[in-house]
Amino acid sequence: MRRCIFFIFLILFALPALAAPQAEQLTSKQLGRVHFPVSCTPKSQAAFERGVAMLHSFWYEESEKAFELAATQDPSCAMAHWGIAMSLWHELWNQPDEDTLHRGLAETEKAEALHPRTQREREYIAAIHTFYVDADHLPHQARAAAYSQAMQKVFQDFPRDREAAAFYALSLLACERSNDRAYVNRKKAAAILKKLFAEEPDHPGAAHYLIHAYDRPALARLGLPAAERYAKIAPAAPHALHMPSHIFARLGMWQPDIDSNLASIAASRRAIALHMGGGSHQFHAMGFLFYAYLQCGKEAEAQALIAELRAMPSMKDMYGGGYDQRLSDLTMFEALYPLELRHWAEAAALTPEPGAGPGDQAMIYWARALGKAHTGDPDGARKDVEEMASLRQQLLQQKQNRSADAVDDNLQQAQAWILHAEGKDAQAIAALRALARKEENVADPAQGLAARELLADLLLELKHPQQALENYRLDLKLNPNRFDALYGAAQAAGMAGKSQQADNYYAQLVKTCAGSGSTRPELSRAKELVAKE
């Protein structure tokens, strides 16, 4: 029944698509307002600015088409080729492959060959050219940094150009160092974007990039105004409807998170119905939707989402990495569902999906290893860890270092619980504590389980309730309103003799899951205890 309701909702939401405008008819009311005058014909100027607005909402599939149209309408429009080159590089998502790099370089050379008429245009084109020109000799990060430095010059040379401010801020986020715990680039970008957002409250890039800048636990609350505004600025863009959920998830605001992603999924499907690009954006939204469902007791909806995803066809993913995002999401959901519900035997029995890539397979072996470690099979868990190590090597050979690092973190989580299963508790605690420090203010729990929470679980199991409570508190500070952390904190507080704190955590769990219809025994117990108060 719940699944039927979900489909009915999406169908009803999609009905307006029959009358929705095609991409060329989308206006600033659907995409946000940008003002980017260039030395092209008035007709091509309209297509160009529509492309820029789409670019700011990462609707790369459609921005590229808009810039191509601008180039057709005005063959002398150099900036149209700048726009195409910008659309090919998804700055925060991926490292372009060799073919894409060659195509991007060709577009920048076309732009230069058209002899752009103004110094401002020449600097924009020169900036993106720096990213593509030395692709055969310089690594991606060095070229991203060079582009950012070039955009800084545009920003400084043309201080009244608000597009330069937006694109420079984005470039700072794109070349952020992975180990930057001081958030130097994020804070620098945010300072620029806050000023732009105040001056241009309907600018899609200002709101969007502010959300990205603040997408860390310690900064997330600062991003709430932009999150509450962005979907209203660009309601036609699938990613714009999803993006606020990055902040909502960081703050444990599960219903706004759910609403945001349902709207994004519907917009993605409207795009498909209108033969527009962007349909694959729905998978990213589904990932956030699934996570939110599990945190507020909507297990039936989460299961329905798994079934729906399994029945869907595959399509090219939004990240430009060439992998099957549908299959990747399906694998992640199947791994996380039993882990989030602490159904260890189910986790231990999982099998990899046929055709899944090494990173996705590693998710399943991670869940299996944790399940086996919790159900008294450390030898079986070690075999799964060995599989993870082998898959990590494959990722390293494919130069997918970020995915390899994620596998390594999960591998270490599993190894810690194996140590506990073998009675080596001091080593297990030390391993999880080190992982928790590494993840602090960086990790995304929607992609796995927080090491801090696993550490608290272990300490609770070892009858160290006060230490467990302290770690649950830290976890909830970074990841508010997580189901398991709230319940664990309540248990730990009760065992530590802090009954009022226990009652408060139980009450918070009940409030978080209000109206969910969940039958989880943890929630039933919380409701019983709250009812006695």
Describe the model:
With 533 residues, this protein is mostly helical. Among the domains are: 29-251, Serine Threonine Protein Phosphatase 5, Tetratricopeptide repeat; 451-533, Tetratricopeptide repeat domain (Serine Threonine Protein Phosphatase 5, Tetratricopeptide repeat, Alpha Horseshoe), CATH 1.25.40.10. It has 28 helices and no strands. It has helices at residues 2-14, 28-31, 42-56, 60-73, 78-88, 98-113, 119-133, 140-157, 162-174, 184-199, 204-213, 224-233, 238-242, 244-250, 254-273, 281-295, 299-311, 325-340, 344-348, 358-374, 378-397, 401-421, 425-439, 451-461, 465-478, 483-495, 499-512, 521-532. Helix 24 runs antiparallel to helix 25. The two termini are 34 Å apart. Residues 1-20 have low confidence and may be disordered.
What descriptive keywords fit this protein?
single chain, 533 residues, mainly alpha, Serine Threonine Protein Phosphatase 5, Tetratricopeptide repeat, 70% helix, 0% strand
Order of helices and strands: HHHHHHHHHHHHHHHHHHHHHHHHHHHH
- H/I helix tally: 28
Low-confidence segments: 1-20
Task: Please name the fourth-level CATH homologous superfamily of the domain at 29-251.
Answer: Tetratricopeptide repeat domain
Specify the structural class: mainly alpha
